[in-house]
Amino acid sequence: MLTLERLVLSQDDFLLTADWSVAAGEKVALIGPSGAGKSTLLMALAGFLPPAQGRILWHGADLAGVAPGDRPLTILFQDQNLFPHLSLAQNLGLGLSPTLRLTPDQAAQIDATLAQVGLAGMGGRKPGQLSGGQQGRAALARALLRARPLLLLDEPFAALGPALKAEMLDLVDEVAQATGAAVLMVTHDPSDAKRFADKTLLVADGVAHPPVPTVDLFANPPQALRDYLG
Amino acid sequence: MASSAFKISPAQGLSIVIAALILGSAAMVAAWADGFALAPADWQALRFTLLQAGLSAAVSSLLAIPVARALFRRRFPLRGLLIRLLAAPFVLPVVVAVMGLLTVFGRGGPINVGLGWLGLPEVSIFGLHGVVLANVFFNLPLATRMLLHGWQAIPSERFRLAQSLGLPPSTQFRHLEAPMLRAQLPGIFAVILLICLASFAIALMLGGGPKASTLELAIYQSLRFEFDLGRAALLAAVQFSLCAVITLLAAKLTLPQGFGAGLGRSMDSPAPKSWRRLCDVVAIAAAALFLFGPLLAVVIKGVPGLAALPNGVWPAVLRSVVVAVVSALLASAAALIMATGAARNKGKAIELAAMLPLAASALVLGTGLFLLVRPWIAPESVALPITVLVNATLTLPYLFRLLLPEARQLRADYGRLTASLGLPRRTRLRFVTLPRLARPLGYGAGLAAALSMGDLGVIALFAGDGGATLPLFVQHLIGAYRLQQAAAASLILVAVSFALFWAFDRLGSYYADA
Questions:
Q1: Distances from the Cα of B401 to the Cα of A115, B11, B398, angstroms
Q2: Residues in domain ABC transporter (chain A) (predicted)?
Q3: Cα separations in angstroms, B204 against A38, B94, B237
Q4: Closest partner residue to B416 among A48, A67, A70, by Cβ?
Q5: Counting one residue from A and one from B, how many pairs have CB atoms under 8 Å apart?
């Protein structure tokens, strides 16, 4: 379980507070106007921004001081999720062995995972030779291999068209099922939240509100959400 | 976590080493200096140093104006090649250029033969004007590239507007080009002044007697021939202070960029015709002749000599290549560590340490190290290691400046991904940093190797009999007036320098593409 305990994030004159939990395996969408702090919250969870106050707990243990790579999570950034000079197999391999010394078993595992996300036989290609959708699949494949119990998505599919994005969300769903991971996904599109997330939380006016069931939130939107949806 | 506050990163450690080396040499020469009273000959050297550097910087900057302007507004075949070749003197060994200038301007050279036909007296290339001539040969291309960059930075919309208003060229110059020149010229002057203040090899070969001796040359002479350590140390202290002061003053100016000068957009508007066109043609042709004439002369004179190379040339080549390769590897490794370190840290300390060698000169560092090792071992027995160390240190600022923006970009693009994957230091170096920075690293290592290959500075201070590098070998041949052999050996020196540059540069691209 991920717990944000009276968390306060601050950057220059920006301030964001949060005080809630996400259970194992839950899928949560973060929605709200741009600049409200959705990405900032994810960066803090991933270990790139130390909290000004409060704590981030994983199963009751404080994550303060834990290096980004040692946290129980995988994060997909808006872009630059793959190293352009490494092959797909190498990019995925970094998820299994940070030294890239792969056993034959691990190599086979990489091939199988590529096939699982629909990239069978493409292990030798460089990211530049792939489409945007295929790059997203490759990044998700690495998340599958890392199999961390928490998956953070900072709008990695924002540049894709609606059909492709829907496909990606289905794949995220599969990955979450396979690894049993909880998912926190930033989005600015209500239909993403409705399609994918059990719960949705609203980030607005310096507060990341506690997650509530997505259906309830959109059935009875608070004022801030009404302002955002227009 | 308390211990991590005192942990020193490799970049910080290197910064301390560099600072210790530079400031330690300065402290060493200050401690050894014979009081602080300059003898009349020392004042003479100081005056001459300032005079030749000031004249060289002024002449180079001023002559660069018409050349850069002509290159900016004219389009002609081979223009791109010419602009690229303007970068070559940066890595051209000084002895080779001097060899070429001697061939063209020396006794029996085409200039004096021409003067003889006209019934005019011969000119001598030795002395102040020879030193300035050689400095201009090296720095006119540099100034031209920097100014060309300035011209290209003027938005083309301004020129279009000026032309649509029908402003004559003189008005255009006043409103568009003169402000750019006012902004750029002080920085260009300062950069060249700093380069020429450390003039050693040129003064060694073209200076004439005690009246035309720079501080660097005077250091060398008092150390090598008079064994007057106190005086050498005093002169080194003066030289260091001079360069440090000018570096600090120059740091306040906006320093122009020299390397990045591109070939430019196409000019949308036609350049002026008639007599202005003629002026531009003359400017470009004269500059090209001045730069390539001497090199051509070396080729013409040297090729027949290749058949009968003097003894000892190949061992000298071998020594030079070893020195060049080792110091290029050292300098690149140091620049890589410091640039990635500086990209990680917010503080300026690492950046400052990496730029510190700009204030030092080969002979100051050499004198400091000479005084340091002399009580323990014979200086000539460590001539090559010390040459490697000094060359690597002096080329570090150039490599660091090449790498820093790339290292910052790498961190901005992939720093978070690298951290989120928890890659250990070795993996990060092998799979992320090296492949991403291979191109500038290869280019920088090539520059360092070529500079080191052609360097004639600290080796002259340390080399014993039979321990010469190739540039020192060529200088000895010139000193003995064996000019054909010197020209032939110069050709080998140029070929090896550019081969080393090419090899490192290719290696970088190959690694980046692999």
A1: 44, 15, 5
A2: 2-230
A3: 67, 11, 20
A4: A48
A5: 53
ipTM score assigned to the predicted complex: 0.84
Provide the β-strand partners of residue A15.
A10
Helix B40-73 × helix B275-305 angle, to 10°: 120
Q: Residue B47 corresponds to which amino acid?
A: R
Give which of B123, B256, B238, B126 is closest to B187, Cα–Cα: B256
Residue B13: CB partners within 8 Å, gap ≥ 6? Answer: none
Q: Residue B231 contacts by C-beta under 8 Å, 6 or more apart in sequence?
A: B34, B39, B42, B222
Q: Do B424 and A99 touch (CB under 8 A)?
A: yes
Q: How far is A212 from chain B (nearest CA, A)?
A: 29
List the one residue out of A224, A180, A203 whose CA is nearest residue A1. A180
> B291-323: per-residue pLDDT in tens?
999 999 999 999 998 888 888 899 999 999 999
Beta strands A53-58; A2-11: pairing state: antiparallel
Domains of chain B in start order, with CATH, are 62-258+275-513 (1.10.3720.10)
Phi-psi region of B119 (alpha: psi -120 to 50; beta: other; left: phi over 0): left
- The verdict on B128 touching A (C-beta cutoff 8 Å) is no
Residue B431 at interface with chain A, using a CB cutoff of 8 Å: yes
Amino acid in position A94: L
The two tokens of residue B171 are 């008005």
Could you tell me if A203 and A30 are in contact, meaning their C-beta atoms sit under 8 angstroms apart? yes
| Residues in chain A, overall count | 230
Distance, in angstroms, between B253 CA and closest chain A CA?
32
Angle at B318 between CA B316 and CA B323, to 5 degrees: 95
| B425, closest residue in chain A (CA to CA) | A99
**Which of chain B's residues have a Cβ under 8 Å away from the Cβ of A156?**
none
Looking at the complex, does the CB of residue A74 fall below 8 Å from at least one CB of chain B? yes
Tokens 């034959």 belong to residue = A104
Smallest CA–CA distance, residue A47 to chain B, in Å, is 8
Q: How far is A132 from chain B (nearest CA, A)?
A: 17
Assessment of whether the complete model's pTM goes beyond 0.90: no
